[in-house]
Design goal:
single chain, about 280 residues, binds zinc ion, 14 strands, six-stranded mixed sheet, alpha+beta
Length: about 280
Amino acid sequence: MQQDLLHRYLFDKLDVRGELVQIEHAYNEMIANHNYPEPVKALLGELLVATCLLTATLKFEGEIAVQLQGDGPVKYAVINGDDKQNMRGIARMQSEVSGTTVKELVGKGYMVITITPTKGERYQGIVPLEHDTLSKCIESYFEQSEQLKTRLWFATDTTQGKAKACGLFLQVLPVDKQKSINDFTHLEALSDTIKREELLELDANTVLTRLYHEDNPRVFDPQAITFKCGCSREKTITALVNVGQQALLDDVAENGAVNISCHYCLKEYVFDEQDIKNIFN
Ligand SMILES: [Zn+2]
């Protein structure tokens, strides 16, 4: 696999749109050094793929956050991204992880999709987590909120340093209802033949040819997906100002410096006594 890419495609005669996502580098960077249990890595991989697919589907300019939150061992898992497919993500545990399904990991809870457009109103969609898999949760989100029949297939491999997260997406186009449902059913049956290994190992062209060669998918230029945290020393300073000078100087006296590490990328920002004084001067 060369690059992390999102491919969008339409079909000549079928009222359905499709997307294929294959992510390696961004996924490895996202989970590196976090020591997540394997099922949590896999969940974050699926959530990353889902966020990329949703970003391409919901069409907005701005930022998106897709968060799972509940009373299970995984207190929350979130991917933050934008329309340029810059992504970062994190999961927080509150107890020992057992099981692999969304229900076993997140427990009773919700999926919250928040879109903050560059211009215009913030939008939030909330769906209860009522299914075992993330794909089923997102499919029912589209059925409930937009009455659009949707299917997702995920495949993840959490091998250290060689992790991969991939996904396939189909959705009816809101044109002629009966025709688009028939078209969807046809493509869904074809897509269902995809094997996990194929989604993970084959390049996008081969996957699409293998699945849909008789239906002429028209594939648009792919969009690159990147891991980008967005944290900076400047943003850290803005947060420190709220803590107050004296509390920070106390911290320096006790620990030698103020150490702030980014929850997402684990990058460390260190401030010594002079740095603190400069911030407040
Ligand atoms: Zn960061």
